[in-house]
Model the fold of this input.
Amino acid sequence: MISAIGNNVAESLASLENSKSGIGTLENIRSRHKTIIPVGEIKASNEELTAMAGLRPDQQSTRTALLGLIAVQEALSSSGISDIKEFRTGIISATSVGGMCTTEDLWYDYLDKEKSGPWLKYIEAHECGDSTEFIADHTGIKDYLSTISTACSSSANAIMFGARLIKHGILDRVVVGGTDSMTRFTINGFMTLMILDKEKCKPFDAERQGLNLGEAAGFIVIESEKASKGKEIYAELSGYGNSNDAFHQTASSPDGAGAYLAMEKAFKVSGLKPTDIDYINAHGTGTSINDLSEGTAIDKLFSKNVPSISSTKAFTGHTLAACAAIEGIFSILAIKNNMIFPNLNYENPMTELSFKPSTIQDKSKKINHVLSNSFGFGGNTSALIFSRHN
Amino acid sequence: MEAYINGIGIISPQQTFDTADFLTEVVEHNSKSLPCIEPSYQEFLNPVLSRRMARIIKMSIAASSVCFKEANISIPDAIMTGTALGCLEDTEKFLSAIIENDEQFLTPTSFIQSTHNTVSAQIALQLKCMNYNFTYVHKGFSFESAVLDGLMTLAEGEAKNILVGGHDEMTDKYFRVCDRIGYWKKEENVPTMELINMKSDGSIAGEGASFFVLSNEKTESSYAVLRGIKAIYKPQSKQEIESKIAELLHSKELTFNDIDLVVYGINGDARFDKTYNILKDGIFKNSTSTYFKHLCGEYQTSGGFAMWLASNIIKRQMVPSAVLIGENKTKQIKNVLIYNTFLDTNHAVFLLSQC
Done:
């Protein structure tokens, strides 16, 4: 994984343990809103990312694709895969911006027939699927490729679809996750919706003012029993649920009906009960609507007996299509290290909710099951349950 | 994993929408970018909503409505769509506004409608459908991923009727941008029925919104049974393609000789003819050959048009002359294979049979 709090899993875990947030000032892209909105940005230029991925300068691609490749390289090596051809291997990636990070710089040059250059190669890179193919081509993955875009729930759905491909015997192992880079397109889009906090975001706080955007890529390797034989297994994906809020194109319903359904489905798949959950890694964006909607659905599902819960968005920012994968990795780290990460910047309880998020680094209990939520525009709601492997 | 195709709604550059007609007259577009023939949306959308909606959303809502009507269902148990480019018109609108106004004075409407999942979200919103909802955005695998997910979902047993669709729109600007990297033919005129005979590089652009109700139950409206799909990424050899097709057929206890008719994604681009010719003159030399991109143009989710064509050929037991290559070699059409590619990168195989 790579995000504002680290270039790999170890660095990210260290930041989480030290309550070190990655939210700061935008540096790598030009935007007139630079000084107004704090963001969770990865402090490396595209040239530096290209080198980090072990590529020559002429192999550079879009920021979205580069971030994705770096995270996939780490995921493959941490799962001990050296021969990609040993088993049928696929990749399901998620992205909401795709190549927009480059298109927004070159759009008018593309349209100007007088201008030409090697940058014309980025025209094809605009399509979301191109970043996935770039990653696949540089890692040798070939047996199944797909890309998912369901706004901020995208990578939860990539994880879900990948797991089902294994369940149906279509693949033996699959790299699942998502990648999204910072763009002026999303910054300005969220600005027009007036849901960006001008300070550091405060998920689940009564005084919350909105979200901070972030950029990240996170990938997880899911293997069938056959392919994972003899390996260290970090966790199991025990449940998943997908639903649609069908309420509004961008806003969540106040009662969180879609969120409730997604969680309910995840429990059904897992065979677990709400009381089995030790920690909830909430979607918790810091917007007025999301936190109320999600919190209300959680209160209902857990009958107001909510286990330890936190949002890690104040560490990384809201990384859109990558957030569910990033937070899926945090959920796995929570299980592996018996650790609950703090919900930073929280002070004032919401009167509408029964629970308060954890605000301290909590290592006091064993974590066996983690629920991770992700909700997006278009009413797309998803929930995943990660469990300790026995 | 099999599914009955019980309803189809498709808006394309041909007269395909809500009609009993089956390509009796081909619409010739005097352009290298074939636009969809759009219906009146009054029947499908209230005019206030309709005015604010982008063209691709309206086309998709209308096409899916017709599809539900034909399959005789009101709400699907799942919605999965594929789109390579999403809502291009709104994406361009918001992008241009950012650049031209230097990130000032922007309004959210086009941003809201620009996200790739807008269409499946809007269909869910119109129907108040809270069920499973997915959007796949992988170039020439977008529609194919949605179809595979559909087959998997039905096999999992909890859904009975699901909506699967593919939609992509072309805009003037995007046509010009893709023209710069050799997507389209350079000739001034490309007559529809001549596309297949052209020896030059490039194709013609297209667009469409194709929706299907897949079900695990055969009904009076069933067109065909969809028996499987395979996506092949950047195949390296003829053997690789043939073995993937064989794998799909063998899993259904079929051989190459059982395929009565093949629908090829031939797009008139000399660079990509090879794959189709290898199959047409090789393992499928005894099957009837058809093609379709001269009718709908080249676009990433053209697999939807191919599936509409194959479903109708099977149901009607009739091959329109406009799609025929050579002669019609078979009397009864039991098994149809679609072989479609996008830029020689994304290859897809669909198997459909009479039900």
User: Anything to note?
Assistant: Chain A has one domain: 9-387. The longest helix of chain A spans residues 63-78. The longest strand of chain A covers residues 236-244.
